[in-house]
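assembly run, all chains below
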Amino acid sequence: MHFNVVALSRLQFALTVMFHYLFPPLSIGLGALMVIMEGAYHWTGDKEWETLARFWTKIFAANFAMGVASGIVMEFEFGTNWATYSRFVGDIFGSALAAEGIFAFFLESGFLSVLVFGWDRVSKRMHFVSTCLVALGALFSAVWIIVANSWQQTPAGYVLVSHNGIMRAQITNFWAVVFNPSSVQRLVHTVLGAYMMGAAFVASVSAYYVLKGRHGSLARKSLALSVIFGALAAFAIPVSGDSQAREVARYQPAKLAAFEGLYKTQADASLTLFGIPDDARQELRAAVGVPGLLSFLVHGKTSAPVTGLDAFAADDRPPVAACYILFHAMVVLGIVLAALFGFSLWRLRGGKLYEDKWLLKGLIGSVLLALLANQIGWCAAEVGRQPWIVYGLLRTKDAVSQAVPANDVLTSIILFSIIYAMLAAVWLYIIDEKIKRGPEEEPGAQSHERGWLQAAGQLANPSGGKLSEGEERA
Amino acid sequence: MDLRVLWFVLLGVLLSGYAILDGFDLGVGILHLGARNDEERRIFLNSIGPLWDGNEVWLVTFGGALFAAFPDAYATAFSAFYLAFMLLLFALIFRAVSMEFRSKREWAWWRRGWDVAFSAASFVAALLFGMAVGDSMLGIPIGANHEYAGGFFNLLRPYALLVGALNVSLFALHGAIYLNMKTHGELQRRVRRWMWHAFGIFLTLYMFTTIVTLAEVPRALGNFQRMPWLWALVGVNVLALANIPRSLFLRRPGQAFASSAAAIAALIALFGAALYPNLIASSLNPAWSLTVANASSSAKTLRIMAIIAACGMPFVLSYTAVIYWIFRGKVELGKLSY
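ok done. output:
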């Protein structure tokens, strides 16, 4: 059988980066919540906040280890699979990676050990400072990797130079690279997504405890905090998404056109809620939308023309159907999460949240929605950049390693799949056990009890049965 | 100084930081299966538990700095050693997760499985690092276009395997010297015995490797003829190695550790001195080698990176010192331990 190195390398990168990205958003979001919990303990002296901070720190540590293990793969993969790309962007991209190591990773991994092992070794204050530094480190790593990624989307501050007979991008203005047109928007949106992830995770586990009647006021405190934090993130996300979409329309118009299934440049362009992109007929079939709204959102008036895919040569267009579906799925997930957390916040204010079984069940399932929204959102951003690896400068198909045969890539894909599947299973099992045991280390950590994971899985899958006390599933 | 030379030296510093710090925790991993029971294995794991993750960041930073300072060398080396790097990645993944997962369950088969994974992964990683050094010393088939023109088996040469074995013994020695500081009683006596064995094996391989290098890689001596002061590195290396048994007899475990750290740094400096100005030597035609001059980033990037390093590294060094200070002393197993 004949395999294509480009397709295989793309598949491997997608597999490894999506697996990696299961963990960092949770680190960033959970880190922020841990700062709030430990800060609350620090200022109020309430021991329950300390118990919670200790509990979530353990989960954070297990999550962080997976992030480190799967993250080092990413750094190496640029060189192993995308050598031509690495030669092209090294002058710019490499500095961001090196800065990430120096400014973020040392901070995170160093002080994480104080967080996990240092409860009895350092003062309360030093421990709190460490928690803040770890959360800050997680944020810094997001900053630098997003600067690097955004430069690929909207290159700036560079000049093309021939080096050893090959063109490459060289830096001309460091700050123009760092603050390229999309980096700030993308950073805000990504970090908000990560906060949503952390909030949904904490809300899911806490709602599970509340529903089970476990951990009393501990679970309620944790749930209230995560609902407030999650609602704030969920309301901010559409605002940041809207301003990011305007930036995409300006700097990557082909991507926006694909997101919206806009084949023809037109005034009074409609914002569709549903549609079936049809490349053959060059139109969005069965479209349901609001005419003029897209024009209004992008340019502030309904009569303004929005650039469609017909403005680009056929081989400069991203895959429309994939972009349209991914982008709309992300938007729908964002709306559902905002509704869920907004409603939960309202019920919390009314004092009814802890009795509302259906809402608690919804919150248990919300972790999977947040996970999907984060994954799908990045997929949309990356697929939308195609066929370019560096927008307008280098095509993905020209960026792979020339020295690596297809069979080597196939071998590593198979091994990654096996190893990652196994790790994911073990990780979920360990996390599920930790959650079953709970923040108070109850001696009766019954492993036969149906766990949080199963509850979340069933809620995300409507046909998976309903949640009721003591029910066993085969 | 020329910025490219500065970055060649700084990469050596980052690599030394990595080899010294992750070297001891890889060494603990290599020795891990020698522990007799579960409690001893947990002592081993917890001796490195709070530190290994930060140690590995030195490798991540080295990788990032190589990418930024010498992108062509990064691209050529990583795509040339594709399968070897994949193997290294799997080893590093297994090391990380086996430490995290192992003690979460009491089942004997579970712990045994992760123990074996942890130790095997540490061994493989140490071997591959050594082999990479060996292959770099010999040079690899690089074509005129700076692309690798060989296959996986071009890397499995006897000399590379020899340097790989040398590195395994060096890290095992370094790890045993570290464990000597972290354990007490009967376990510490056994660790000291291993240390002498590792020292014996290392010295044998060290002398053998030196002879083979002088015979097989005459290019390695070029810089020493031009810059005789480089011979001082050999002196430092030999003195540091000789100081290991001396400080052990004098019951100064900290000094023994400092000595093996200095020996590792001197070995990497010697490696750099033998390699310079090449980053990756072509075994096909010396003119096709990737050098400090033809593989580097622009002067502007090198300057920006130097500023980033100058701003960041003082923080890194100071809080690394704080964290090692917090976790000083013998290992005590407690509720928070692995």
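Residues 3-326 of chain B form one domain.

Residues 185-216 of chain B form the longest helix (32 residues).

not gonna interpret more than that til we talk
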